[in-house]
Amino acid sequence: MRYVKDRQGYKAIFDEKTGYTIRMGRNGENPFWKETGPELLDIAITNYCEKECSFCYRGSNKKGSHMKLDLYERILKSAKQAGVFQIALGGGNPNQHPDFIEILRMTREYGIVPSYTTNGQGMTEQIYEATKDYAGALAVSWYYPYDDAKNVIREASKYGISTNIHFVLDADNINLARKLLEEDCLNYVNAIIFLNYKPVGIGTRNILKKGKEVNCLIDELLQFKKCQIGFDSCMISHLVEKTDVINMCSVDYCEAGRFSAFISEIGNMYPCSFMCGAGMSGTSILHDNIETIWRSSQSFVDIRNHIRTTRKDSCSKCMMYNQCHGGCPVFDINCK
């Protein structure tokens, strides 16, 4: 358990075993941001991926490059100084990085909890052992064909590793989400995390829209008991309508530039990984440290100002605006 307090009155308790974080600001209010740096740093240690899926928002493929190990250690040193709690290793397919096990070990050595999401390819006995020794969480992406994900869940269970499933939810795969709930492999799963699809990358998919179908699915998910159910903060505009069954203290609006940030495999830092995928500009970690970029880089200042500023459109008149803040500040994926 880690307790943190900064000069601006931000306080947090971080459980290194579960990843749960409790935040508090002055006078007990919910703090707007962590001023010294992110709680969670999302790092693409590679843009290599053997699956080359058409819908990949990063366009990852077999020609994708790996982050150099000395750059990763430079990031770790800066992350420790900025008070980062967790690092989510991504890609591409992160476990295909040639130094992946060393990356897991180094991250723990710097007092930061690593986790990662795999597409299911390239998992080895050594990687499972390192995951058990060093990682806080393992997640596997769920998309057709599902054998790779099921293999990871089955093999991880042999090492006592409880796996999470990441499911990217769009307007056309709601029934596939329901079918996932029927899978026997969920007996070995810690949680299913539903991620709101963002229209970034080569492939085109239909975004979620407000309506009976989405509403019914969320009701079903909230009643599901076989494993835990979670949602990314990009689902916020759909979740705020469920205040009768959701404790809103467990739900937050967009955390980009407030409590989380992303660093690409070449060392560019962004408030959100999807900003990188959309071709927006980042700030090189080679030129500044994480805290300086976090506090002063224009993209971080702009996104915080956008989220903080009360909107002038019909969204601001919504009774749930204080919980939602208009949803995603970058992409048009919010509840219509």
TrEMBL record:
Keywords: Iron, Iron-sulfur, Metal-binding, S-adenosyl-L-methionine. PROSITE patterns: RADICAL_SAM. PANTHER family: PQQA PEPTIDE CYCLASE, RADICAL SAM DOMAIN PROTEIN. Residues 35-232 form the Radical SAM core domain. It comes from the Bacteria. The keyword Iron applies. This is Radical SAM additional 4Fe4S-binding SPASM domain-containing protein. GO terms for molecular function: catalytic activity; iron-sulfur cluster binding; metal ion binding. It comes from Lachnobacterium bovis DSM 14045.
